[in-house]
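**Sequence with structure:**
===
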Amino acid sequence: MSQNPMIIQSPSGTRTDTANPSASAARTDLEVRNSRSNRINTIGTTVTTTTLNNQPRNNQNFLSMKSKSMIGVWNVRSLIGPGKLEQLSRELFKFKLDMIGISECRWKDSGEINLSNGTKFLYSGRSDTHHNGVGFLLSKTAVRALLQWQPINDRFIWCRFRSRARNVTIIQTYAPTEVADSDEKLAYYNQLSSIIHNAHKRDILIVMGDLNAKIGADNTNIEHIMGKHGLGTRNENGELLIEACNDANLVIGGSIFPHKACHKSTWVSPDGQTENQIDHICIGKMWRSSLLDVRTKRTADIGSDHHLLVATLRLKICTAGQRRTLNSLPKLDISKLNSEDVKNTFVSKLSTSIEQLQSPEVSGNTEQIWQTIKSAFLTNAEDVLGLRPRNRKPWMSESTWSLIECRRAAKITRDNAKTRALKAETQFSYNEMVKRVKLSCKRDKRLWYDNLASKAEAAAEQRNMKILYDVTKELAGRRFRRIGPIRDKNGRLLISTENQLQRFREHFSETLCNNTTTITHTVTPAEQNSFSSLNSRSTSVMNRVPDEEKIVQAIGSLKNNKAAGSDNITAELLKACPSTTAKMFQPLLKNI
């Protein structure tokens, strides 16, 4: 096997190929002017792990459940010409894409380039000729979420990204044309199946690229693989693609969504008369609902006869049935107990439950007594006090909500407009209502912040820590715990669990096991006698039932404003009437 040529990058970012000066001269425009940019030359199929140098730690996830992500696939025909990579990067920012999978980049060997605008280009090609070649152009968000990538050959490259729910594995490929030999096609799809088989089983799998496959619109008996909105007539490559998707449980995204033919065709013949749908984006069937749309962007231009194909994704996951935790228990409005009338009503209803505890069916069973006490407290508390109201946006005023309803009415009027003039007039009215709603929301939230600040100042002056804490918590909002990446001594990111555990062992062995001193202590006879006296001393345990006075004292010592346990009975409920509570708990203590 021939050795790959050495790749040298000057401090200014100029790429030099020592084995092929002509190729280096043809790509002199691809200078990376970032002094900290690095270029890694990979040989064979070595897995390359990214190193995040001084990257911001926010927005580390490639896909999320709140915001949409957009990925593209494009056969650019060639990236060797002057300014090609700059044009591709410009299209990435223009269409707000997170990444673009590239087919036929025609670059030799494999490696990565960090551009001065924060993007990264990964590529994989042949070592002998400028033929085929695949790659990825990653945005800043995708670069931060990149876990690892691997160049296979001039037809395959894959990347693995961090995501909110699962990691994402994306395989970029360039398939043989329809006129290629059958053996070459079979070898290609066998290798594709092998790459899919070796991917992480729990990852979200996406296969995309120029597959040179026409799948057509007939999805009879293969509805689980493709929709009915394909284009053209199915060819041999289309049959092979459908078979591969069936084996890997993939869905062809471009056939699912109804669009005009011009938004589904990805290739146009040189004479402009023939259009085909041969570029595809396929996603795992389990994550089909996360794929929101697939269509071409005809205004994207890089001098290719292919259109840019863009997929819009947003993670959708089902919430599994979970046990009710302490945080999910219904929260009672305990503040109403400050009113004497409400407290007396609650105590009077609670007193009626004492008679149930004295009935023969309940008095002898400890568990039955406890369930009766628990039901009496929770049922009466929910009837008298009710649940604590949840205001998700307490800062929005009634006037703002009225404006929102007016905006909704303006939208309906706009949608029902029949003529162009009326539609333009109603669109202008709708836009004005949108502006008014935004201004009103900003004004309400600013007023809400001012009121909370005044409330916190008053609480601090009165030394009311409960109100001060509640206001601070409300202003801070909910925060998620973030776990930083684990790196080895050289700063390389560790992505496997075994390597991370090994790094923990090394860290704690170096931190805790070095320069250790053994501390010894000799027990004196006096200490030995004290230990013996403690062991021989008998302890008396009170085995009599406490009277009501002791129970009332114990209830009075409970602190307010503490979280309830698994029974959801707070200290305020027990202290509403300590004597009544003591009468209810005394039969329970007798049976324990």
Observations:
- The first strand starts at residue 7 and ends at 9.
- The two ends are 81 Å apart (CA to CA).
